[in-house]
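Protocol step 4 of 6.
Sequence for PadR family transcriptional regulator (Streptomyces stramineus) entered exactly as in the expression construct, tag removed. Do not edit the line below.
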Amino acid sequence: MALDHAILVSLLEQPGSGYELARRFERSIGYFWTATHQQIYRVLKRMEADGWIDVREVAQQGRPDKKEYSVAALGRDALSRWLHEPIQPESVRHDLAVKIRGAAFDDPAALIREVERHQRAHADRLAHYLAGEVRDFTGPGAPAPPDAGQELQHVVLRGGIAYERMMLAWLDDVLATLHRLRPER
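Step 5 output, C-alpha cells:
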C-alpha cells in the first residue's frame, strides 16, 4: 500500500492539516501504517500537484494560517481504482524468528533478553491499542450506534489487538523454550 492511499482514507474520514494527519498516524492509522511528518508532507505536496487533494488556507488567531487538505475527485477516483485492485497477501519477514532459528548454532539463552524486550514492546502496543479501543469504540464516549466507517476502523483495530495477543503468546512460548534449552549452571 502506498502512503498516498492511507492519506486519502484519512482525509476522507476527516479533512485536516498536515500536522493533524501526522497526529492521526500516531494515534489510529498507525495501527496498520506508519509515516513520519516529513513523509506525510512530501506526499501531500505531490498529491496536491497531481490534483488528488484540494488545499484551502484556514486563518488562525494568534498563529500562522494553516493548510487544510481534503480529497478531490481525482483522489477519490485513485482510491476507488486501488480498492478494486487485488493485492497479494503479505508474507512475513521476521528478523527475530531468524535469530531464534540461528540460536541453535550459538547459545539459545543469549536471546532471552532480546525476546523479553520484544515482549515488552508488544505488551506496550497491546495496552495502547486496548486504550484506544475503549477511548474510540467501547467506552462511555463511543458513538452508538457506530457508522460504517467507525465499524471498519474498529475491525482493523481488533486485528491489531489479535495480532499483538498472538505475538505475546508466541513470545511466551519462545521464552519457555529458551529457558528449557538453557544449559545448567
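Step 6, annotate. Strands lie at 53-58, 66-71.
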